[in-house]
Amino acid sequence: TSGDFVPALVIGSGYGAAVAALRLGEAGVRTTILEMGRLWHDPGHDGKIFCATTNPDHRSMWFRHRTEAPLDTFLWLDVVNRPIKPYPGVLDRVHFDEMSVYVGRGVGGGSLVNGGMAVVPRRKYFQQVLPEVDADDMYRKFFPLATECLGVNDIDTDYFTDSDYYEFARVAGRQAEETGLATTFVPNVYDFDHMAREEAGTATKSALAAEVIYGNNHGKRSLDHSYLASALGTGNVTIETLHQVRDIRQNRDGSYVVTVDHIDETGEVVESKQIGCRHLFLGAGSLGTTELLLRARDTGALPDLDADVGQGWGPNGNIMAGRANNASQPTGARQSAIPVLAIDDWDNEAARVFAEIAPVPAGFETWISMYLAITENPERASFRYDPATDRAVLDWRRDQNTPSVASAKSLLDRINETQKTTYRHDLFGDDRAFADDFCYHPLGGCVLGNATDNYGRLKGYRNLYATDGALIPGSLGVNPFVTITALAERNMAKIIATDITT
Ligand code: FAD
Fold first, then answer.
1. Domain ranges across the chain
2. What is the pLDDT of residues 424-453, one digit of tens each?
3. CA distance linking residue 76 with residue 427, whole number of Å
4. Is the CB–ligand 1 distance for residue 392 below 6 Å?
5. Would the ipTM clear 0.90, i.e. be above it?
6. Is 378 helix (H, G, I), strand (E, B) or coil?
7. Can you identify the CATH homologous superfamily of domain 154-212+315-436?
8. How wide is the angle at C-alpha 50 spanned by C-alphas 160 and 119, nearest 5°?
9. What is the C-alpha to C-alpha distance for residues 137 and 166, in angstroms, rounded to an integer?
10. How far away, in angstroms, is 216 Cα from ligand 1 center?
11. Which of 97, 261, 345, 377 could staple 269 via S-S, CB 3.0–4.6 A?
């Protein structure tokens, strides 16, 4: 229906969007969330909401004929990926020329598919990345608030030491320590009490049944169980699902109008609507928010948007690699899908690396130690609006990851030396040891203080805000969702206090 109007619209339902919706709802502002993905609450044909990682079906990926898992092959064999029926599945892999980006689709955005690792960045690096943000405010107030509202908890160290499902992490942790590297536990939003019950056989297995990238059926406090549930609880927030925003424009009176396609489960547009609002919040993620803004600027709909929209993008230095352990160092046929241990070598100025020890939950012994390395890399890319396809194009080149691969390699070479081991070359295609062509942590495109003011207000317009990972300039040194949440909390506190009158 055209002519609909709500005081506030929020595009997307990931971390930044969920914070915006909750704080608006609490302030008494009627708010509608527009989310292109599904609500993941109803069980499918097999009684499960999400499909199994090891046996993916149509629920796994966003309109694909075949799954595209991060590990491409095993022993060079094409045994990982499966043909599937196109459907609005929960994980998407967005392909650009030389980089592809994993993102979540559905109510809760990335929280539905991510590893749940909830890491507060090092204060010194945070200050370097976002120097205009008052770090005292963040570390005293907004990081603790975000951590609390997200439901972050720590693994019990006795459980970690005894669990059958964490041998992979204990082995890799020991090897790091034998190399003189420091390890640290990583907090998570997965409920570790639930995990202990899974292992004891008193709760249905989820993390311990390899569930993660295509959704967890139990145990994980994704946003639909935290911020978004609270937002709905205010009575002022509604969520429209399978609603994909196409365009944004502004009326003469300063209000905004979005064009949104309501799609069905085949992807057909069943209705195209116009919805008006006073305050518009973009929380469609680094890729989604940047694309909507670039399209608006470069088609002339919002011509006064800053030249910095589209700039400052980076993959948070993400590199994956696997080591091949000796036969005497098995990593376990049983592996929890939730990582809990990391190698922290960020103080090594020559090669800053925070390397998470990741599972390979294949269900059989692989002798693999897998790592997601977050590295420091000064390289940045930008998006350009391509009128021919009406899409944003990312100009990241593969060779921009050279510094990241070098850092990850220098750390893992040291471990290989002490352990007398080598790399696995059979996992990522093309005989490569290092996966340098995809990422999980897209950051930037609408950088705080450049494309926006210091609180996410888009330059050139009033009542228009970016609230998600697009605000962070390409690198954070740790997994990003706690920071995205905390920054959104900080910005919303300011915006509610000064921009919103009810
Ligand atoms: P998102 O969470 O990406 O949410 C954006 C939402 O907007 C999505 O739901 C999307 O469907 C919707 N949307 C986009 N465009 C439109 C549109 N035009 N109209 C309507 N809706 C739209 N981070 C961590 O901190 N710890 C981890 O352990 C971790 N593991 C990860 C593992 C995987 C497999 C992946 C993919 C990511 C992982 N991340 C992790 C990254 C983390 O999930 C993201 O940084 C985070 O979700 C980004 O939050 P956001 O608010 O910027 O946007």
1. 154-212+315-436
2. 999 998 899 999 999 999 999 999 999 999
3. 7
4. no
5. yes
6. coil
7. Cholesterol Oxidase; domain 2 (3.30.410.10)
8. 40
9. 36
10. 15
11. 261
